[in-house]
Amino acid sequence: MNNEPEIIFEDDHLLAAFKPDGWLVHRSEIDRNENRILLQYLRDLSGHHLYPVHRLDKPTSGIIIFGKSSEMATLLQQQLESENSVKEYLAVCRGYCPEQGVIDYPLPPVADFKHQRKRPKADLPRKSAITLYRRLDTVELPYEVDRYPTSRYSLVEIQLKTGRRHQIRRHFKHIHHPLIGCPKYGKSSHNRFFARQYDCARLLLHASKLKIMHPISETVFDINMTPRGTFSELLGKLNWNLTN
User: Cβ(137)–Cβ(152) under 8 Å?
Assistant: First the structure.
């Protein structure tokens, strides 16, 4: 199954694309050895200079949007921050999470660099962070991964109301249902199990829906995309059907 970057919408003002897991949106000192750079790839593919509007973390796949001018990127950012925009994700978490809920838990900035990590966590300013979620399906597997004879997991639909760094992963750790495949906020025993049992070693987080108003045409811009690659294959192996 194709898991390469792909342009899924383009006009004179903006470009929307599929970002595979493992690709950086743009070059970063945090991961200077990574050569898979989505921004450069899409610039070469489209023949246009592109301006990032929002970001997806390297291990996250899904829909991402770029402006074809700095002015358009600013207008798109304003749209994404408006109450009318919709940013939805699909994820797999450990355990049976509640059927639905709101995680309203302020988050401090992520400390990527050494000088940031030297500051006590209590000194880092927290910002409002709100995540809505709805459980779509569950599975109980006959494998002892942790301390129980079986292991439970949930497929979850998530909507971001704010856009803090690593917000979904940090919020689901906060409610004790960490995402599968996350090395930083997840649990290594479950990550290893999915890699070994299902050949799925990636973070199970996918940006599945983006809905905004086009800043120029003022028409509703609505894109939906199901997971690809090993995430898609895993859904089949666990008999999880997104159309239900």
Answer: no
Q: 51 pairs with which residues across the strands?
A: 67
**What residues contact 228, with CB distance under 8 A and at least 6 apart?**
1, 2, 3, 18, 20, 61
Residue 242 domain flag:
no
- In the predicted model, what is the mean pLDDT of the chain? 92
Q: What is the pLDDT of residues 44-103, one digit of tens each?
A: 999 999 999 998 999 999 999 999 999 999 999 999 988 889 999 999 999 999 999 999
Q: How far apart are CA 155 and CA 137, in angstroms?
A: 5
Range of the domain at 55: 6-235
Cα 181 to Cα 179: distance, rounded to the nearest angstrom: 6
Q: What is the pLDDT of residue 84?
A: 85
User: Is 1 part of a structural domain of the chain?
Assistant: no
Q: Are 38 and 23 in contact (CB under 8 A)?
A: yes
Pick the catalytic residue from 57, 104, 137, 146. Answer: 57
Domain CATH number, residue 173: 3.30.2350.10
Distance from C-alpha of 53 to C-alpha of 50, rounded to nearest angstrom: 9
Quote the CA–CA distance of 161 and 83 in Å, as a whole number: 8
Catalytic-residue membership of 57: yes
Indicate the pTM of the whole model.
0.92
Three-state secondary structure call for residue 123: helix
In a domain? residue 244: no
| Amino acid making up residue 82 | S
C-alpha dihedral, 137 to 165 to 185 to 168, nearest 10°: -10
- The one-character DSSP state at 178 is P
